[in-house]
Structure prediction request, 247 residues.
Amino acid sequence: MTEFPPPSGPDDIPEPAPQAAPRSAPGAAPAGALGPNALEAAAPRPPLTPDALGDDPVAAALAWVAEAAEQSGMRYPNAVTLATVDAEGRPDARIVLLKGGDERGFLFFTNYRSAKARVLEASPNAALVFYWDAMGRQVRVRGRTERLPADESDAYFESRPRGSRVGAWASEQSMPIGDRDALEARYHEVEAEFADTEVPRPAHWGGYLLRPVDVEFWSEGTWRLHDRIRFRRSTPGDDWITERLQP
Ligand SMILES: Cc1cc2nc3c(=O)[nH]c(=O)nc-3n(C[C@H](O)[C@H](O)[C@H](O)COP(=O)(O)O)c2cc1C
Prediction:
């Protein structure tokens, strides 16, 4: 399992990190106007080819996350939009942090009682979308989700800072709560409960694996001639078919 970056996230990092310098946008409109945008006249980039991506799209996507971590200046280059659809066909989307991946697929962690988890349990098809502005890159993924085996969730949970582990017990994610004080009081209660012991992983908190059947790499080109390389297969375990799509 490739894991990155060191276990951290909005819940682990109390202080804000430096922001990336704004990227120059040659075609940018004046402030407040929605005019021509940077994509119209983007700086030339080397064209993206299937060969450059290799034959494993999960590894290629992880490599793009790693490059964004080095070059984009983003605080969360592993932030990804997770889109779900419930049993009535109603879509929803939210950001989660990609915590790794391997030959099985992409990995993220959440509360198994959250709104997203309830939807995924009933309707496991999901999509991921990454976008790295500074890199001019997007990755789209579709596939089925399943819970990560408990021992792997345990291993990840144990790697988290104690405060985050307490927080996993304290928050009934996606449920209403009266006010911020009530949330903090709940945190302190949990902290007191575990004062003399390790904080174990709650059974309702853990990972999901998304096993991809579609992974599309988009790279910004000049004059809207963007590169799109799609990997697809009917089911996980099949060989990937690679094709170039028109932008
Ligand atoms: C940068 C960022 C990273 C986040 N990472 C996670 C995460 O890894 N897991 C998670 O459950 N929620 C994460 N969240 C919060 C989710 O976006 C969302 O608010 C929460 O999971 C509840 O969603 P739900 O009600 O659809 O279940 C993150 C939010 C942001 C903005």
User: Anything to note?
Assistant: The radius of gyration is 20 Å. Residues 39 and 155 are 42 Å apart (CA to CA). The longest helix spans residues 57-71.
